[in-house]
Each structure stands twice: as C-alpha cells, then as structure tokens.
C-alpha cells in the first residue's frame, strides 16, 4: 500500500471527485478526514471506507468559513495525530450568467467556496504538515480558466480556478524548504453531480459562442466524459512518494478536451 500510516484530508469528500479520492486513498492505507458541509453523502463516504476495512471520520464545515475550517482540521488532527496529505477539492459551479446580470454576491459565493476555501484548507493544515517535515497538497482546479475560456458566463468559476493555479505555485515555492509539495489537477468534463449542486445558469444563450462538437469533443474517448476515479488516480500519484520530485505544477486530465475546445 502506497499510503500506509498516512493521514489525508479531503474537502468535498461527500460526493464526486472528492468521494472517489477519499475511497482510493483509504484503499492505499491512508486514514481519511472528510471535510464537507453535507451530512448524508459524507456519512456514506465514511461508511463505505469502513466497510472496505479503512478508517475515516467526517467533520462538517463550510470551506469558506475560517472558524469552521480551523475547528474541523484541528479535530482531525486530534483524532489521527498527524496530517500528511491535503486534497483541496470542494467546489461549486456557482452562477453562470452574462456579466451585467451576474450579481456581486453571486461572484463572491463562487470565489469564497472555490478560492478562499482552498486558501483556508491549506492555511490551517500547513502547520501540521510541517510537523511531519514533508507532505503533499493537491488542489482541484479545472480546465476552465486554465486552458479553456470558451464557457462564456462561467466567469467567476473560471477566475476562481485560474487563481487556484497561481495559489498552488506561490505556496509550492514557499513550502518547498519544508519538503511539502503542492500541485494542482485540472479536470475536464467528469461525470459527477456538480451540475445539480449550487449551479445556476442564466441567459447563456445570449453570450455563448455557437460552436458545437457533435462528436469527438473529448478526442481521447469519442466524447465520453471522464470518471471521478480517473481524477482520484492522479491525486493518488501526486499524494504518493512516486511523485516525490514534482511540485508547483498543474496537470490537465481531460482526454484532450481543452486542446480542441480551448
Ligand atoms: P460535486 O458537487 O459532486 O462535489 C463537490 C463536493 O464539495 C460536495 O460533496 C459538496 O458538498 C462539497 N462542497 C461544495 N461546497 C462546499 C463548501 N462551501 N464547504 C464544504 N463542502 C462543500 O462536484 P465534483 O464534480 O466532484 O467537483 C469537485 C471539484 O472538481 C470542484 O472543485 C470542481 O470545480 C472540480 N471540477 C469538476 C469537474 C466536473 O466536470 N465534475 C470538472 C473540473 C473541475
């Protein structure tokens, strides 16, 4: 097992990419601290890990709230006694709308969850990673805002995802001397429930470019989106010692979708 005796925190571990990641890291021996704001999906993740012979706990927190994050991470530290791996994954699509229509509070909601949430997750875990004199942080960004800019209306989302890449590079350099690696994964279309959670779209037909790829918009698969488990495998690689010389870099995982769509 690649992560024996390690402890991993996964934000947004209740569903989708976070859940698949929590399950895979647990299968590789890590004890998991799930941080998520939803009750039933988070408990389901914990139950599944336990049924598979692993160990996990859930801490309820909104990643955009400093007090809740500080408390959740300190609880996980008290339970497991160490933190080695941090997956800053929790995120929302938020509101996609023309710029005149996008409300300031909608902009804030997206940036608060996706970007401030990443900052708080890393801020409150770094002191514990430093205690181990090593660690791996993996941020979950997107193709949108990093390679793709054609999803007009998703401006707040794309900006939050672009900023996560800058954040990763800043922190990778800052933490390198502590042997803490920081990398960012940028998925393309992945089959999850993200479009059903905190996802509003308004008047996109007014602004989106009339470009369609009826077939082959994901060249590697002939159009089929990726799975959460595909992203989880990449996160596992970045969490494990097999990537011990990799830090401060983004990796796209999108079947070449962003190369054709841009
Ligand atoms: P998802 O909706 O299935 O999972 C997101 C999880 O984050 C949920 O469990 C949710 O409860 C949690 N969450 C959301 N806001 C939170 C908050 N404020 N505090 C605590 N928990 C919160 O979505 P997913 O597709 O698994 O998305 C995970 C990450 O992957 C996101 O950052 C998303 O932007 C990114 N991503 C997804 C896709 C895709 O196609 N699904 C593509 C690129 C990037």
Number of domains: 1
Radius of gyration: 18 Å
Q: What is the mean pLDDT?
A: 97
Structural class: alpha/beta
Overall geometry comes to globular
CA(first)-CA(last) distance: 38 Å
What's the tally of helices?
7
Largest sheet descriptor: 7 strands, parallel
User: What would CATH call the homologous superfamily?
Assistant: NAD(P)-binding Rossmann-like Domain
Residue share in β-strands: 15-25%
Identify the CATH architecture: 3-Layer(aba) Sandwich
The sequence of SSEs as H and E is EHEHEHEEHEHEEEEHEH
User: Which percent bin holds the helix content?
Assistant: 40-55%
Small molecules bound? nicotinamide-adenine-dinucleotide
- Which regions are unreliable across 5 or more consecutive residues at pLDDT < 50? none
CATH domain topology: Rossmann fold
What is the total tally of β strands?
A: 11
Q: Report the CATH C-level class.
A: Alpha Beta
Query: What is the spatial order of strands in the main beta sheet?
Result: 3-2-1-4-6-7-11
């Amino acid at each position: 097992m690649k992560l024996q005796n390690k402890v991993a925190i996964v934000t947004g571990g209740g569903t989708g990419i976070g859940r698949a990641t929590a399950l895979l890291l647990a299968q590789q021996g890590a004890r998991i601290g799930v941080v998520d704001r939803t009750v039933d999906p988070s408990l389901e993740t914990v139950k599944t890990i336990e049924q598979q012979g692993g160990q996990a706990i859930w801490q309820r927190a909104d990643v955009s709230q400093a007090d809740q994050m500080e408390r959740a991470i300190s609880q996980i530290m008290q339970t497991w006694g160490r933190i080695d791996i941090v997956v800053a994954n929790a995120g929302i699509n938020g509101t996609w709308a023309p710029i005149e229509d996008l409300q300031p509070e909608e902009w804030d909601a997206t940036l608060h969850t996706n970007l401030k949430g990443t900052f708080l997750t890393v801020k409150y875990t770094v002191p514990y990673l430093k205690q181990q004199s090593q660690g791996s942080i993996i941020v979950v960004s997107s193709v949108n805002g990093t390679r793709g800019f054609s999803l007009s209306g998703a401006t707040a989302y794309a900006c939050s995802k672009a900023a996560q890449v800058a954040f990763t590079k800043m922190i990778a350099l800052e933490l390198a001397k502590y042997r803490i690696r920081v990398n960012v994964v940028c998925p393309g279309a992945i089959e999850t429930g993200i479009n059903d959670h905190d996802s509003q779209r308004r008047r996109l037909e007014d602004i989106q470019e009339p470009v369609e790829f009826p077939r082959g918009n994901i060249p590697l698969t002939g159009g089929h989106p990726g799975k959460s488990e595909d992203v989880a495998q990449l996160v596992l690689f970045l969490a494990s010692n097999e990537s011990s010389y990799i830090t401060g870099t983004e990796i796209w995982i999108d079947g070449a979708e962003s190369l054709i769509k841009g």
